[in-house]
Amino acid sequence: MKKILFCAIFLSSFGLLAQNDMHANIDLQFRFANPGARAQAMGGAFIGLADDTTAIFANPAGLARLASTTVVAELGNTDRDNNIPFYSGTIDRVALQDFEFNLQDRDFPETTTSVPFVAYVDTRSRLKWGVFYAEQANFERRFETAGVTIPRYRNPDYLSNNTLTFFPDSDHFIDLQMRTVGVSAGFALTERLSVGVTLNYNDFQYEGKTDLFIPDFQALFPNETFNPAFLDAIEPLIGDSLARVDVDGDDQAVSVYAGILFAPNPRFSIGLAYKQQPKFEYDFTTNGIDTNTLEELPTETGVGDFRMPDSYGAGISFKPTDLFIFSLEINRVLYSELAEDFTAFFANPVDPANNRQVVGDVTEYHAGIEYIITSTTFPLSLRAGYWLEPYHALQNEKLDTQILFGYTDESGDFLASFRQNVFLQQFAEDENHITFGAGLSVGRHFALDVAADIADETSSYSLSGIYRF
What we know:
It is found in: Cell outer membrane. InterPro entries: OMPP1/FadL/TodX. It comes from Sulfidibacter corallicola. By secondary structure, the chain is mainly beta. The chain has one domain: Porin (Beta Barrel), CATH 2.40.160.60. Helix content is 6%, strand content 55%. It has helices at residues 37-41, 55-58, 217-220, 228-234, 400-405; strands at residues 3-6, 70-80, 83-95, 98-107, 110-122, 128-145, 148-155, 158-167, 170-188, 193-213, 241-265, 268-276, 279-288, 300-307, 311-321, 324-333, 357-358, 362-373, 380-389, 395-396, 431-442, 446-454, 458-468. Strands 2-5-6-9-10-11-12-15-16-18-19-21-22-23 form a 14-stranded antiparallel beta barrel. A five-stranded mixed sheet has the order 1-8-7-3-4. It starts with a strand and ends with a strand.
């Protein structure tokens, strides 16, 4: 009978949020968008502008420039495709180190509607201050996968090493929430220079599970011949759990944002901002069976870390006329911090290739414009923008094809378990975001802003109401 390898790592573990290889986290990439429909419509380019209540998040130094005490509330809606590009299929070897990916994808769409931001800013003293509530993370999704087979390994010097390898059927769920309340203050050091700080109290809720199932081998490998005794033994177990991971987190932490804003004249400003993000803890439980004896393994428990990466950025804002604003922003997000606290549930403890899962820091580019039409009964602002979201998930240092080809130990024996670490680069892709929106000022006190952020995998919409006293 052919040797069979249960690849319990599935296809990839490039989930970002939980910094672990629980498959429910696959391709969940955190976005650090500034709140508010106006900022969203302008591509999030707000560090150098920071001239409304959402400066609390973008650059708290901007609060010092606000003239009116303000209340703002935002309603948001996000549609996610949740595309799984390896829902099912096969991977075939066409040459020694050349592989053909015949994979089928499938969408598992999710829609989230919430109130992501509410704030009050008081400008009646020289120290401008505000309080707020923000929803920084709100993810919930379910998806499943069917089996995927990968090329068997044949070592000409070790003919007995004829191994069938595959990734099993699976079922996944994740619900991640991070809600923040805090206080922010901005102070003008001079007429041109202001500073600000935001203190956040963050509440973290994290629940999820990954379940891998024992497959129907005859259906998964239709061209293979199996020992009838093996098929009879495995038939009652088809669909039973092969490995399961459950996570449950409920933690709180404090974080701080800080900013500087310099405006040498009314038409130009430049801002700098830094965001120190929190780290949380979550509990996990793992269950599984011994793939040789098919007996249940002892349940293991532990504690993992969820680290939000820090970021810093710079932005400029230029007003060539009183009715036109142009804004640019560059953000550096320290995603390399994610690899410091990575929890591997399915890792091979002895890695012959010394492979590591790493992620580099990325640079996001944001640009936005605003044009105000004053010839209408109520002033109308038209906005548009763009921002680049580089791929920022944990990946293997080794190429996918290198790992598929396989590594051997010092004796030359193939270590098939190393193949569990594949496909972290196969589907990496940057994402372009196109944004647009409008704002309507009704009288001296009330304004309404709408915005849309459209990308390949995600579409976000926002409605903000603003009241100025």
